[in-house]
Amino acid sequence: MPDALRVNLEAVIVAVTGATPRVLTAEAADDCALPAGLLDAHAHPTLERGLRDSVQHLTGFDLGYAEQLYTFGDRARDPRGDGRGPRTIGIAYLALTREQALPGSTARWHEVYAFLPWEDWRRNRPVLLDTVVAPALRAWTGKDARRRERADLVFGLDGAPWDAERTLERYELLWEAGALAEAGATPGLGQAMAQDHRRILATALGRLRGKLRYRPVIFELLPETFTLTQMQQVIEALAGRRLHTQNFRRLIANAGLVEATGAQARAQRGRPAALFRFRREVLRERPRPGVYYPGAWWSR
Q1: pLDDT tens-digit series, residues 285-294
Q2: For the chain, what are the domain ranges?
Q3: How many CB atoms lie within 10 A of CB 166?
Q4: Stated pTM of the model
């Protein structure tokens, strides 16, 4: 049947403004939705061209850096539907940019952790893990030892370590436990999104956190010149963890990722800070020039 399958191109567009990670949404009737559009097999010569055209049409935003993230193809991707309509395959992309105004558009920038509040550990362990998440998961696990172990490992409960990159697993576990609005919970944890877009956002956040280890992606989110404090804030915003400032600066200097420009940023108070730029030569010097270093993180 010609209407049995559709391909949707969906974009997770991430910026970090100040110390706040932000995602661009194209407002739906009653939910936040990621910018998305159907692939036109005739008008779009490539998937990425279709994505860029859809984003520009919906938001007025021209994408810069973008990479394919994941393909989502569950039968009932919209939890409010009955699953009997045309099946929609979602091909999601991750795009990194600097936040900009979008005049004349209904698109809006939202804080990432408004949708995934359990992922932000910058001010210590989120209280809601113990007051909301753990009780919901304990009710779901009951006496099932396998479920209990899975919940502990994914959410760092009962002495298990927290793995910042398991963002998709955490979202899916909360959905399975019925703790999210998308799974019927009232009220649910965090702000809901249309269809399965919060699942896509969780996937993108996990990808970004992983890339901190081996790709200098944060420089897509920084201006051409920046202070080390700005750089640290961007990393912390994405990782959801605090950095030990002295260790971070020493390790960044030793890694050769940045170079001083000789200029200084204007300071409203205190001494002006030195400005740096990304040292592109590092891409030729080693294959995995990331910004994750053992000893740089606060152990919380």
Answers
A1: 877 787 765 5
A2: 5-113, 123-190, 213-285
A3: 19
A4: 0.91
